[in-house]
Amino acid sequence: MPGISVPVAESSSGAAKPKLTFAEMFRATDGRSHLFTFVLVSILFGLWGFSNGQLEILNKKFQDALHMSIRQSTLVQFVTFIGYGIMAIPAGKLTRRFGYKGGILIGLGLVAVGAYWFIPATLIATYPAFLAGLFTIACGLACLETVANPYTTVLGPSEGAAARINLAQSCNGLGVMLGPIVGGSFVLSATEHADRSLANLYIPYMLIGVVVTVLGVIFAVSKVPDIVDTSSDVRAGTSLMKKPHLVAAVFTQFCYVGAQIALWALFINYIRAEAPGMSAGMGQLFPDGWTFEKAGLWYFTDRGASRLLSVGFACFLLGRISGSMALRSFSAHRTLAVYGLVNAILMSMVVLRLGWISVFALFAANFFMSIMFPTIFSLGIHGLGEETKRASSYIVMAIAGGAVFPFLNAWISDKSMALGFIVPLICFGVVALYGFNWEKLARQSGVLK
């Protein structure tokens, strides 16, 4: 089956299942190993992680270089994630027509076009020109996500589906972590008074374009089997609106992605907003013209805050790796519920402005939200058989939540930075509710006995 067995380490009757070894996670029923294909596809997860890891850097850069408000700069997130919402359904249709390999090649082509567009966009140097490139990249990434997420769930036994998709998403976490490091090095100023032009903005995207071109050649010459699930009785043409576990997954994913992007979009701003209380008194110790760098407070500079963002992303990556191992043994939906509840509590700490406790809560939230996207995805497509590709396109469409919630978050944050985090608090609560109620929803859908 393309989804997971409901608890991953248990049968629905509660009987324990043996824990899968690493090799068994990728072994098909005919004995063939899909490990090479899995590794190849996992690289794609790193690609869109790196691309999306640039967005928070762009937010701060556009605020400084184009003199924008926080709310105006979140158009970066809006055009990116609205691209997912627009392209997801067409991507699902393309995948059903051309197969997994065809969908991947189309997605890589769109990403390459958008990435290389940043070279002339830097010369044009207007906000709409950059947004056009981000939108094109997002359309390509929507194709890749529509293919890659469900594909990982069928590259081995069904009971390892959640663990496989979380393991692949670990590459996404690595890409997300590297994004701010590379972007911060080329895009953000090394000091508070350095050049604030957009001249170097094309460099990380030119790198993306080159990598995507190479990947396109590799995929073109590689064998990527178009595996069709035959174990489920759900056939093409089934009304997916009658599958409550999928419908709820789409809404939950919409909320989760909104929470994730809202948190990341304002991460640097939150660090900087909390700095004045600590730095104001310290400023009296230095002569006029002192800088955070000279004071040793590098973490309050734009570039320094981007490094802290990378530390947050490192927590995210650690959560993905540990989560993929945990999901080989523990119930996926219950783990999701607990993680969602923990993050709701952490966001309440941020809203309450508890000083460094709130800052540490932001880092911890990255760890606990790490498994949410892939786990919601695998729970949502569980047991959908031939309709897996179409169902996947609906869940990818829900990534548009990243276009909606950051605007709301930023609107509140323009008045109170801390209070803006009430938005992800509510969203993580929705994630927890889905996890706690998934078993009931799956039975109503007829995909769980």
Keywords:
disordered N terminus; 0% strand; globular; 16 helices; 449 residues; mainly alpha; Growth Hormone, Chain: A
Strand fraction equals under 5%
- Between the first and last Cα atoms, what is the distance in angstroms? 14 Å
What is the averaged pLDDT score? 80
SS field, number of helical segments: 16
List the uncertain runs: 1-17, 190-195, 275-300
Could you say what the CATH topology is called?
Growth Hormone, Chain: A
Q: How many structural domains are formed by the residues?
A: 1
Q: Major beta sheet, specifics?
A: none
Tell me, what is the CATH class?
Mainly Alpha
Tell me what the CATH architecture is: Up-down Bundle
Q: CATH superfamily, called what?
A: MFS general substrate transporter like domains
The shape, in one word, is: globular
Assign the structural class, choosing from mainly alpha, mainly beta, alpha/beta, alpha+beta, or little secondary structure: mainly alpha
Helix content: 55-70%
Q: Element order, helices and strands?
A: HHHHHHHHHHHHHHHH
Q: How many beta-strand runs?
A: 0
Radius of gyration: 22 Å
Q: Secondary-structure blueprint of this entry?
A:
Elements: H1 35-53, H2 55-65, H3 70-73, H4 75-124, H5 127-153, H6 161-186, H7 202-221, H8 244-265, H9 267-283, H10 302-326, H11 332-351, H12 356-368, H13 372-380, H14 388-397, H15 401-413, H16 422-445
Helix pairs in contact: 1-5, 1-6, 1-7, 4-5, 4-7, 4-14, 4-15, 5-6, 5-14, 6-10, 6-13, 8-13, 8-14, 8-15, 8-16, 9-10, 10-12, 11-12, 11-13, 11-16
